[in-house]
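Q: Focus on the chain.
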Amino acid sequence: MHYVCPVCGGVSETAKNCGTEGCSLQGQPLVECACEDNSHEPVKTNKGN
């Protein structure tokens, strides 16, 4: 299990808030993700789009 920001795509192994400077969700909780291939498909990140 890991946690992902759905806006910037930041990833953390622990539940915490997004810490990416300039992200519109900075300071907001990351979303739980259980993908095993680093696709983060369940979260649908916008990173790279």
